[in-house]
Amino acid sequence: MLDATPSSSLPARPGVGYKPQHYAAIMDQPAALGWLEIHAENYMGGGGRPIAQLRHLAERFPISVHGVGLSIGGEGDLDKDHLARLKHLIGWLNPASFSEHLAWSTHDSHFFNDLLPLPYTAKTLKRVAAHIDRVQEVLGRQMLLENPSSYLAFTESEMSETDFLREIAQRTGCGLLLDVNNVFVSATNLKTSPQDYIDNFPLEAVGEIHLGGHDEDEDETGAPLLIDSHGREVVDPVWSLLDYTLQRSGPKPLLIEWDTDVPDWQILYAEIEKADQALSVVVQ
Amino acid sequence: MTVTQTAFRHAMLDPAATVPHGIINPDGAPATKRFDVYRNNVAVSLSDALEAAFPVMSKLLGDEFFRAMAGVYLRTHPPKSPLMMFYGEAMPQFIGRFQPTKKFRYLPDIARMELAMRQAYHAEDATPVAPEALGAIAADALMSVRLGIAPAVQTVMSDFPIHAIYRANVEADAPKPVMQPQSVVITRAGFDPQYHLINAAGAACVETLKKGQSLGQALAAGDDTLDLGAVLGLLLAQGAVTAIY
């Protein structure tokens, strides 16, 4: 287990998921923007424009590296080649933070490019903890683990997600990334209370908070089915849930995620300013 | 009831399969539409990755057909790595065997060219020598000289007019392709890959140089259609030569 001191050095300010079409606007250093997050896998090529842009951005902004391909919740061993690529990226970039998901995406050497769910049992707890131990050992730093969006439940689950995450953080010394949109999506889909989730979440371990937009659908019974799409504005109930969280956690680094139907910078920046406003009213 | 990831994966990739027992909605009932979220996410995200990787093929086949074909490809060839930037590496073989497209015999080479353009885009950076650097070598020593070739440099040889077909789909007012064998060499002077028409002997010559063999050997790799001076002039002008030794 790693020393529990959080190694995330992101500022408690708004950040944004970096999209290359916003490069020029971001290099103008808009006032409310405190840091940037990149998806690790997009910067694992040999060179060219993506790496060159990242080097320039890293001279101006703290960078958070967010992985989507490690498959920490996978039944199999971690992909050694992928872990080596990650170590290389973290090595030269020396980012302010590294985070990944409580999910699986690879099975039998095939990668599915989605964050797939796992049941919360003693067995999966042991496996996820072992994978996080391995990641932190190879990278030589603490990582943050993000709560997923849930659409369904497993009959075999033995504990709540918040208990599972608390236990993982205690066993491995990892920090947590709290996605409040995911909390809202999961609570709606599983008919639970998002405020209860926040009340039960180990907020002291949180190194970063995510915010994003979701799509609305219904299941075959007519019950609401929210889908974590990162393709639109953050909805009002999620902003309220953020306020509820920040009142309990104090200021944290806040990220706006907008990954599909990426809008013009002005629209995205309006979201960043809203995040800045939410932080400004929190008593330090 | 344990839901293994093997069972999850199987049901996720097969829309007709039953959702694994042990997956429920919050009321304890089966959760087919909820499971469909994952089926849809995987199919859409991998199809999007293929569409981004093969814009010319998508244009040639039409978006609707390409998406349907991508749906078959992603189930028979799911990614082997989380690097989506290189997904689709088996597309040339797939499209050559796929019944509805196998009659378009030029398509596998177009797919190869699109893969090569992406490889070039993400290739390691390299510092080129000055374009006039080769001029300083004495004429009698020239044939034993070896060149460092930038990692971005790729060639694609074809029996079909791939340069003209590709160009007609990315450039306005490009000439209509005429049936003839064409090869291309791809270079990257800055960050954007450029494709250049070259004959088969020229492409073979570039491949010989990439292997670290001498100019004399590169000359021997071609036939009497090889214009070595023109090939070297192109490589030097495009910043594709990184060392002379």
TrEMBL record, chain A:
Coiled coil: none
UniProt xrefs under InterPro entries: MbnB/TglH/ChrH (IPR007801), Xyl_isomerase-like_sf (IPR036237)
Stated family: Belongs to the UPF0276 family.
NCBIfam families, sorted: PRK05409.1
Record protein name field: UPF0276 protein SAMN05444714_1796
Native species: Yoonia litorea
From TrEMBL, chain B:
Keywords: DNA-binding
Protein name: Putative DNA-binding domain-containing protein
Molecular function as annotated in GO: DNA binding
Residue span, Putative DNA-binding domain: 4-95
Organism expressing this protein natively: Yoonia litorea
